[in-house]
Amino acid sequence: MTLFFIQRSVWALLLWPSLLTVSMPLDCKEEQGSLSGCTSISQEKLLDRVIHHAELIYRVSEESCSLFEEMFLPFPLQLQSSQAGYACITKALPMPSSKSEIQQISDKWLLHSVLMLVQSWIEPLVYLQTTMDRYDHAPDMLLNKTKWVSDKLISLEQGVVVLIKKMLDEGMLATTYSEQGLFQSDVQPEMLESVMRDYTLLSCFKKDAHKMETFLKLLKCRQTDKYNCP
């Protein structure tokens, strides 16, 4: 284990509790499963909380991906993974890819794009927790981060659903998005294949988490300074 990795792990251990405490609550579900817990929050504050959640999710996904690389994936395998053509599970979703495309889509599509991304990752992250439990010597920090992101993603989904209702004046949407065949977890791969698949999931989720954050921040910018958004 390199000195760099030891130092980064120590810093991560020190910062991890503080990361949990600065996270603003976004748990909208109440006892009967309603979303009224978030409907009482103003649109502006709700959008700020949703953005804050997305920022934290992206930050922790970056840390998880780096930790996974250090623990289980030597550099040659990282190159092999990038060259193997593993497709991200959300590749088929109708997402804007270029900066010009993102700037041209409406607020409605920004929100619905975030919702599609969030909902398409809920099941794969649950699967990721299950498969990483089978690893030998998987650090608790990695397992805890994965579970934390999975839990926060559900909270983010709830917040985005209420935000859609508030900003677009649309009826409450069903909080389940499914794409047939988007993710298949019934086949148990060999260990090396499992490591490569899990790394692909983490890498793809990190990219999509960055998209969620970018879309939400653009939406926030449009609310305050429509003509000067990047």
TrEMBL record:
Superkingdom of this protein's organism: Eukaryota
Keywords: Disulfide bond, Glycoprotein, Hormone, Secreted, Signal
Entry's Gene Ontology BP terms: animal organ development; growth hormone receptor signaling pathway; positive regulation of growth; positive regulation of receptor signaling pathway via JAK-STAT; response to nutrient levels
InterPro entries in alphabetical order: 4_helix_cytokine-like_core (IPR009079), Somatotropin/Prolactin (IPR001400), Somatotropin_CS (IPR018116)
Pfam families named in the record: Hormone_1
Protein name stated in the entry: Somatolactin alpha
Organism, as annotated: Amphiprion ocellaris
Major subcellular site: secreted
Any one Gene Ontology molecular-function term assigned to this protein's record: growth hormone receptor binding
Keyword Kinase: no
Family: Belongs to the somatotropin/prolactin family.
Highest classification ranks of the organism: Eukaryota, Metazoa, Chordata, Craniata, Vertebrata
Cellular localisation: Secreted
Signal sequence coordinates: 1-21
One term under GO cellular component: extracellular space
